[in-house]
Structure formats: C-alpha cells, structure tokens
Amino acid sequence: MGTPMLDSKDFSPEWLDRKAEEKVVKWALGLQYKDVPKSVLAEVKRAVLDTIGTALGAQHLRITKVVLAFVANSFPGDQAQVWFSEQRTSALGAALANGLITDGLDVHDTGHYTKGHAGAAIIPCAFATLSMAGRVSGEEFLTSLVAAYEVGYRAGNAMHESVSDYHSSGAWNALGCAIFCSRILGLTIDEAVHAMGIAEYYGPRSQIMRVVNLPSMLKDGSGQGSFVGLQSVLLAKEGFTGKGCPIISKKIITNLYDDLGKVWRLDRHHVYKKYSVCYWAQPSIAGTISVMRENDIKPEDVASITCNTFKEALGLQQNIPTNTEEAQYCILYPIAAAAYRGKLGPNEVDGKALKDPKILELAKKVTMKHDPSLTSKEGDPDLKGKDTAAMTANIAWVQVKTNDGKVFKGKKSRVPWDHLAGEDKPGDKEIREKFMWLGGEAGFKIEVLNKVVDLCLKLETLTDASKIESLLLPRNHHGQQCDACVTS
Predict the structure, then answer these.
(1) Which of 43, 69, 213, 367 to pair with 299, CA 20 to 30 A apart?
(2) Other C-beta atoms within 10 Å of 336: how many?
(3) Are 267 and 46 in contact, with CB atoms under 8 Å apart?
(4) In contact, 94 and 218? CB cutoff 8 Å
(5) Residue 422 has what pLDDT?
(6) How far apart are CA 72 and CA 14, in angstroms?
(7) Which pLDDT belongs to residue 106?
(8) What is residue 478's predicted lDDT score, i.e. its pLDDT?
(9) Taking the CA atoms of the chain, what radius of gyration do you get in angstroms?
(10) Measuring CA to CA, which residue among 242, 229, 20 is closest to residue 129?
(11) How confident is the model at residue 380 (pLDDT cuts 50, 70, 90)?
C-alpha cells in the first residue's frame, strides 16, 4: 500500500526527500538568461502581455471596483501601483489587488497538467516586487519569470498528483511567485527553501468546484496566490521559518522536477485562452461559431444548438447568469453570446449583454449532451501516443438545426490555440491582437496600447522592467492627464 495523499490526516517526514527542495531552489536561483531558449523567452514575453491584457479587460467589471475600495481602506501606502487606477498601495496590496483583478476575467493563460493558471498570480506579484527591488533589467525580469513559471507549473502538476481535492490555482502558483520574489529580493538558498515551505503551507487550498457550482468573485484563488507568494518571501527574509514543502519533496513526485532546465513547460504545456470563460466551455463555443460561419447561419435562423461534449463541461452552470461571475462559469449563455457576436470577451460576460433578449432567447435553444467517447480521463482519442495532457480531451462537436428544418453537423472542435491538441499555437501577432481587443473594450487609446505591446515584446532590451508599469497609470505623478488615460 502506498503512502497516503498529502491532505491525509496522517503525515510522516519519511515520505519526503528533503534534498529535493534545495535542488529545485538552487536551479531556480541559479538560472541565467543565456541558459533559457529563445522560444521560451518569447513565450514568457507573450505571457506578460497576455496577463496585463486580461487585467485591462477586467477594468469595467464590478470586482475591480470592489478590490480598489478594499485596497484603499486596508493597504495604505504608496510603494506600488494598482494597475490602471490612480491608487498606490503597499507591495503586498498591489500583489493582491492586481492578482484579484486579473483573476476576475477568465481569459488568462493556462498550464496543462495543472488544471489552472500561473500568470494571473505570477505577473502581478512580479511587478509588485519590482517596487521593492530598485532597478531590475528586462533580462533578469524575464529569467526570473521563466524560473517562476517552470517551478510553478510543476508544483501544480505535483499537487494534483498528490492530493485528493481539486483545489484552486492559488494553492500552487504561490510557489511560482515565491521563486520570482526570492530571486529579485536576493534571498539565500536556505531562506528561499523556507519561503517555498511557507508559500506551500499558506497557499489557498480552496475548493475550485465550489466556485464552479456557486460562482462568485472568489474565482481561482490567484489573488491570494500572488499575495502569499510575496508574503512568504518577505517573512523568510526576516527569519521566519517554514522549511518543508511536500509538493516538491514527497518522494513519489520529486521526479516531476528532475527535468528542470531540460524540458521547458512554457514551451510545451503553456496555452492561452481565446474566450473569457472556463476552459471546459471553449470547445463548444468554438464549435458553434465554426458551424454557423461555415454554413452562413444567422442567429435568428437557429431552431436549436446541440453541443455534444465531455462530462466535466456539463458540470458548468446551465442557468441564465445574472452577473459576470455566473456568466464565466456557465455554458449555455456563453455559447449563445458567442454565436451572436462571434467573440466572447468582457462586453459579452458583463453589462447589457447579460440582459440582451436576443442572446437570452438563443441560450434557451442550446442543449448540452454528454458524449461518452469524449472523456478527459482517457485523454484525446485522436491524439494517442503524442505529447498530450488529459486536458486536451476538452472536445465538442456541435449540431445546429435551423428554422427550415435543416441540420448542420460540425467536426470535432477543441480549445482554440491549444497546440497540444493540434490547434495552431498563437504567436506575437495573435496575442497582440487579443491585447488590443481587450484594451479597446476597456477604452484605452490605441497609441498607448501599442507602446505597451512594444515594451512587452522587447522586454530584454529594457534597463528597467518597471517601465512597462508607467504606461498602466491613468495619471502621472504630477496629476496631469497622460497618454495612458482611459478615455470616457
């Protein structure tokens, strides 16, 4: 009989390889820019742009107003910036606020085998940390981000392999944040090992299926992951102890870290979202849009839409949403909204769209059916033998019936941009277009958006990586209107 899961009521130090933590930390702190493949550097630059774009897209959501009020009252200070606002706060306040806001719009990056998201915590935490570190070059910023993603993605994988619950991303992306902060704030190896143990222990082991079934602003715990990651490093730097990080050192999972520096998960397992909704709903949305476009079907001509998909997708709410959190964790409404508008972003999951009678009427015509041949447990049946994750089994095939009785059956559709599932991987062009779309919906000027894009995609040339954040201010420090102001 094997050792119990890590969330068992029993625990034994004999299960752990205590050298594993130090080995991982040594690799992360010792990683150099010249050691990182160009393709990985390109990917992490896109991740920075994509994450900022996600936060930008969330600016008109209610969660942003709530978080701004909370931070103003609870985290006084002027050390760091709350993105796209006039508010300044402490570094911890910025890590929390920008993480919560980014997590508020479900269109951030994703990692296979983690069932969750890294950038929504790591990128906000990274910029908050810069406010404490002085000038950090673009090369060091990128290298530290790569180390954070690589360790974070493995921690997410390890946690799912070693605990029985389905937890939020904050439970493991906090470790990625701790890696970044340990590098930038100059922790010793021993201090960083303690920081990892603190982050693992204090990270939010929140139950993600609760939010799927009862959608709220809690989302995926990434705001807390960002906060805990930075907090853990600051505590460790002051001498707070927390050594012992089982999701790295448990003997049955230490092998997941053996390929650090050899296999780059940013290259192999990192993916982006095209639609602002749960990953499970993406194939049905893509399939519906495809069938309607290929057959020139207008929304008003639809009699019914039947989405045949994998079991987990049917776990998403099938009621009509009353707020953006419900809209991002349901499935009938997003399919209808995307069918009408050909996209699914902040304007489709919030505001007037939630009360649009045409979208709501079409949503009533959508039916979800379980196709037993599409199961995430077995993996994608068409991709056997390839380097795929079970998450690539997110598949749907859609059938649309029109009012004249005609039936149009689509091909299997997968998550757009999921290269592990055989979809085209987005490059600079696609992520730039996504950023411009989200920024446009938030009301930012095109010239400012272009500046942010250019800086993100040329990060390695910057002598001070925090220069990017200077464009995310609605007003400059003298109170004058600046180019980066949100237009009314």
Answers:
(1) 213
(2) 28
(3) no
(4) no
(5) 86
(6) 46
(7) 97
(8) 28
(9) 22
(10) 229
(11) low
Residue type, 410: G
Q: What average pLDDT does the chain have?
A: 92
Query: CA quadruple 122, 180, 476, 464: dihedral positive or negative?
Result: negative
- 487 has pLDDT over 60: no
Contacts of 341 (CB under 8 A, 6+ apart): 348, 353
Helix or strand run (H / E) with residue 291 = helix 282-294
Amino acid sitting at position 338: A
Closest Cα partner for 26 from 171, 161, 196, 201?
196
Q: First and final CA of the chain: distance in angstroms? A: 64
Q: Which amino acid is at 192?
A: A
Q: What gap in Å lies between CA 478 and CA 272, rounded to an integer?
A: 37
Closest CA to 203 of 156, 164, 237, 239: 156
Closest CA to 216 of 377, 103, 47: 103
Location of structure tokens 């993105």: 83
- pLDDT value for 6: 63
CA distances from 371 to 393, 397, 412 (A): 12, 9, 12
d(CA 330, CA 343) in angstroms, rounded, equals: 16
338-361 b/e with 16+ CB inside 10 Å = b?
bbbbebbbbbbbbeebbebeebbe
Strand partners, 317: 330
What are phi and psi for residue 372, nearest 5 degrees? -60, -20
423 CB neighbour count, 10 Å cutoff:
17
Residue position matching structure tokens 């998550």: 415
On the CB side of 259, how many CA atoms lie within 13 Å of its CA?
Answer: 11
Amino acid at 441: E
Distance, CA of 321 to CA of 480 (rounded, Å):
40
The pLDDT-based confidence of 481 (bands split at 50, 70, 90) is very low
pLDDT in tens, 66-95: 999 999 999 999 999 999 999 999 999 999
Dig out the tokens for 107 from the structure: 């269109």
Neighbouring CB atoms inside 10 A of 249's CB total: 27
pLDDT the model gives residue 484:
39
Q: Picking from 10-19, 123-132, 451-460, which range would have the lowest pLDDT averaged per residue?
A: 10-19
* CA–CA distance, 202 with 225 (Å, rounded to integer): 9
Cα-based distances in Å from 100 to 52, 61, 145, 387:
13, 12, 19, 33
Task: Say which amino acid occupies 377.
Answer: K
**pLDDT tens digits, 214-235:** 999 999 999 999 999 999 999 9
C-beta of residue 404 within 8 angstroms of C-beta of residue 341: no
Whats the size of the chain, residue-wise? Answer: 488
